[in-house]
Amino acid sequence: MTGRVTPRLDAQDPHYNLPFHNMVVTTPRRDRDATTDNKVGEDAMTPNPLLGVVFHWLGGLASASFYVPYRGVRRWSWEIFWLTGGIFSWLLAPWLFAALQTKDLLGVMAQIPPRTAGLCVLFGVLWGFGGLTYGLTMRYLGLSLGMAVVLGLCTVFGTLIPPLVQGDIADKLLATTSGRIILLGLLVTLAGIVVVAWAGAKKDGDLSPEQKKAAVAEFDFRKGIAVAVFSGVMSACFAFGLSAGEPIKALTAAAGTGPLWTGLPTLCLVMFGGLITNGLWCAWLILKNRSAGQWLGAVSPAETADKPEVAALKRSPLLVNYLLCAVAGTAWYFQFFFYTMGESQMGRFGFSSWTLHMASIIIFGALWGFAFREWKDARPAVKAMVWTGVALLVGATVIIGYGNRLGS
To answer: 260 burial class (0-12, 13-18, 19+ CB within 10 angstroms)?
Structure first.
């Protein structure tokens, strides 16, 4: 299979009726490509788990950093800057980078079986609820605590549910030395998450309401925890969306796209599902709050309620706000961009990609939390607890990377 010819998957193809044939984030079927006459050129390459870990860390840095530019947006309501940034993360960036890195993108998309495309979008819609409430979690808990709770649950569900559903968790985690080492890494990850969340609870108990508001303007521990639990469960659907898109990887590889980029067309579909969820919710808020005028310069009423100096201003800083939202939205997309690159290098231990991704986000999220002085009024013992949790997460990443190397 050469050039831009894109085959159609049909009932004879083993991928067609099995959208969950590998309900984990795994690599394309390079073994099949390498042993048939339809080999995908010279783009096939041997997985490199250590390189995969590096890509996952880059994705974690992008994810942990995406909300930082939003902190600089002025005089816009939440729904305005969230939807503005989301247009970049859910629509523009996925299609732009897929078009740049995928050969015959439109041809590949045209050949995707409707059921496969539908499942990708459906899981994207479910993930959209997690992404939507993820932003609210940052609002109520701050970067470090919010990320720890959300991504802790996301790690558990996204890593363990797929092999449980497949019924091969024993083969993947217990039957080999590398699998047992990866299992140890998963347990250390959970321990790190518990420690960070515990530190957040202690900080909440120690600080006065005024101190909490100074660190996180809309801090609300109970509301934030409830939103974070829901967000963590729903965010795990992203991993299932990528898994449902495995047949798309085969089509993309057959069109001549290199292994690092075969996951990009799937991102277009899954993230479009996220756009549906977030777009509908933000549209309702915009209608309810009559905030659409802020895109043209009107000032958010919430910003002027108790700030006379802001109320006196006629317009919002539109150019700055749009640029900040563009940076934030693109950074959020880059977490998945690097995730697909990292996953392509993990070999048969691709299921551990989700854990590596989540742990790296929590690590960088905790660092941003300290950078923004969210923990400035916490007792030294509580700060030490946070760093202990971060150290456990770093160690877990090393352990999982080592387990992947043994199994590669």
So the answer is: middle
For residue 188, count CB atoms less than 10 angstroms from its CB and return exposed for 0-12, middle for 13-18, buried for 19 or more. buried
CB atoms within 10 A of CB 164: 11
Burial string for 385-401 (b: 16+ CB within 10 Å, else e) reads bbebbbebbebbbebbb
CA distance 312 to 361: 39
Q: Highest mean pLDDT range out of 25-39, 181-195, 351-365?
A: 181-195
If one counts every other C-beta atom within 10 angstroms of the C-beta of residue 232, the result is 24
89 contacts: CB under 8 Å, gap ≥ 6: 66, 271, 328, 329, 330, 332, 333
Q: How far apart are alpha carbons 232 and 126 in whole angstroms? A: 12
204-216 pLDDT, tens digit each: 666 666 665 555 5
Integer Cα distance of 337 and 267 in angstroms:
8
Q: What is the pLDDT of residue 266?
A: 95
Q: Quick check: 232 and 154 in contact, CB under 8 A? A: yes
* Cα(398)–Cα(3) distance, integer angstroms: 40
Residue 261 has pLDDT above 50, yes or no: yes
User: Can you state the angle between helices 237-244 and 143-166, rounded to 10 degrees?
Assistant: 40
Q: DSSP letter at 121? A: H
pTM attached to this predicted model: 0.70
- pLDDT of 37 strictly over 60: no
CB 393 within 8 A of CB 189: yes
228: three-class secondary structure by DSSP: helix
> Which residues are CB-neighbours of 129 under 8 A, at least 6 positions away?
230, 231, 234, 277
The answer to whether residue 88 scores a pLDDT higher than 90 is yes
Residues 5 and 399: their CA atoms lie apart, in Å, by: 42
The rounded distance, in Å, linking the Cα atoms of 155 and 359 is 8
**DSSP secondary structure of 170-196:** HHHHTSSHHHHHHHHHHHHHHHHHHHH
Q: Which residue has the higher pLDDT, 217 or 51?
A: 51
User: Which string of DSSP letters, residue by residue, matches 242-283?
Assistant: HHHTHHHHHHHHHTT--GGGTTHHHHHHHHHHHHHHHHHHHH
Q: Cβ-count burial of 206 within 10 angstroms (0-12 exposed, 13-18 middle, 19+ buried)?
A: middle
Q: Using one digit for the tens of pLDDT, what is the confidence trace for 118-138?
A: 999 999 999 999 877 877 777
